[in-house]
Amino acid sequence: MSLTQTRYTISEVEARTGLTQHTLRWYERIGLMPHVDRSHSGQRRFSDKDLHWLAFVGKLRATGMSVADMVRYAELVREGEHTVDQRRELLEQTRREVRARIAELNDALAVLDFKIDMYAMGTTAGKATQQ
Amino acid sequence: MSLTQTRYTISEVEARTGLTQHTLRWYERIGLMPHVDRSHSGQRRFSDKDLHWLAFVGKLRATGMSVADMVRYAELVREGEHTVDQRRELLEQTRREVRARIAELNDALAVLDFKIDMYAMGTTAGKATQQ
DNA sequence: TACTTGCTTGGAGTGCACTCCAAGGTTTTA
DNA sequence: TAAAACCTTGGAGTGCACTCCAAGCAAGTA
Questions:
Q1: Could you tell me the distance in Å between the CA of residue A33 and the C1' of nucleotide D21?
Q2: Which pTM was predicted?
Q3: What are the structural domain ranges in chain A?
Q4: CA of B113 vs C1' of C8, distance in Å?
Q5: Phi and psi at residue A3, in whole multiples of 5°?
Q6: Which one is the CATH code of B10-122: 3.40.50.720, 3.50.50.60, 1.10.1660.10, 2.40.50.140?
Q7: Measured distance CA(A33)–CA(A25) in Å, rounded
């Protein structure tokens, strides 16, 4: 365990996460970030812990979870250990939705495959599939 | 080939497709529908062909394709047979995006699984994963 | 020191995909 | 025929997730 903690400016975090400075400030404002440390002059200094949290939030974003739900999750984390069941439930609900979304995408993919094959097999075979 | 063509009012189409009347009218306005037939008094009368098109559009929407791109596709269809290559290309681009999206979702799913297991395995094992 | 680049805030603006409204004409049912 | 249900239009409004702005203070470089 080191005593030196790396601290990142908002630009560095922007470069590392791909999130804009605007979005990072907005995340903090809406309660999606635990309060970020500040320099003596008030500028944000992000820690590795913040970066980890942001990475996790990125995964939640990738699931399609709404910002409102991510904020809800962040609140539960702040409230402490006794919210573990609610957090798990929120994540399980999200997982169900992700699975459903993947199924939907696979379904749409099959239609796409069919249509592309149709087009690839020379000029649209049969007037029935003219679209 | 029957001479009787079934024609549906906008309410019937709403019930069948799950799209609201507002959305159906909006689709027509923005050029996402080939012009729908009208009754003598100007009310919409959708055909089975329209319903098929709407079903296909529903699949495109399920892929996450933007409305703008769906309109572009609809325009290409209206322009005729010589746009087949462009249509195929648009669909192939969409397919690449869908595959990437599925990969991203699977990736996020793995994180979700890991996290849920963590919570399920009794009170959060190890302070490192406190979120 | 002068200059450039970076950071701060609250609030306004953007783009997407709908979603709804008002006012009025049409069609169906009792 | 009368009432209820249904349909029309252009345009305004909504919710989400950012995205940007202005004014001003802070930090790093020649």
A1: 24
A2: 0.86
A3: 10-122
A4: 39
A5: -90, -20
A6: 1.10.1660.10
A7: 9
